[in-house]
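Example complex used in Figure S2.
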Amino acid sequence: EAAVTQSPRNKVAVTGGKVTLSCNQTNNHNNMYWYRQDTGHGLRLIHYSYGAGSTEKGDIPDGYKASRPSQENFSLILELATPSQTSVYFCASGETGGQDTQYFGPGTRLLVL
Amino acid sequence: QQQVRQSPQSLTVWEGGTTVLTCSYEDSTFNYFPWYQQFPGEGPALLISILSVSDKKEDGRFTTFFNKREKKLSLHIIDSQPGDSATYFCAGSNTNTGKLTFGDGTVLTVKP
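Predicted assembly (225 residues):
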């Protein structure tokens, strides 16, 4: 079974502060993804990566940066958090080549005050 | 313009009944369509998927149908159970990119 873990699970941040969300996968998957999920909306892709050292912009990258220092780890960075970034963030991993099942972590609930 | 649309937004069915969820998409390059199931407090998990070369795929009580001409797909759940109560997302992707575009989801409640 795929294993994707996220930390922290819950986070309260202040407006203007820096927030780092971490994701670790033990599946040796090449691809990793960061999504946000808001009430009434599906998952929207923020950033993704095809392997260590690579990051790509997704559909809603503004206000976010990503870092993939290793095959296992993928971080999402909010340099200057804003209340509009209050959301639930999901990390996922998957194999290269399309038709890949994406395995999701349990999510991080972020509240920006 | 929303690339993947789902309907209904929410649905309640009785235990033992048949659930039908529908999805439409815009991007004609999409050729892979997974359905994900999400329980409260958890991440989504793959339920069933279909490639555009097929028109039907079945897995137990779950069947997905694909209509390429109309750019539509559907998920049928027969003998619906209370444990099926969850949010269901359809998604589409071009297998060359591996990027999924999700619909907004359907909240399913199965009443005993």
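Chain A is about 0% helix and 50% strand. Chain A touches chain B through 27 residues (CB under 8 Å).
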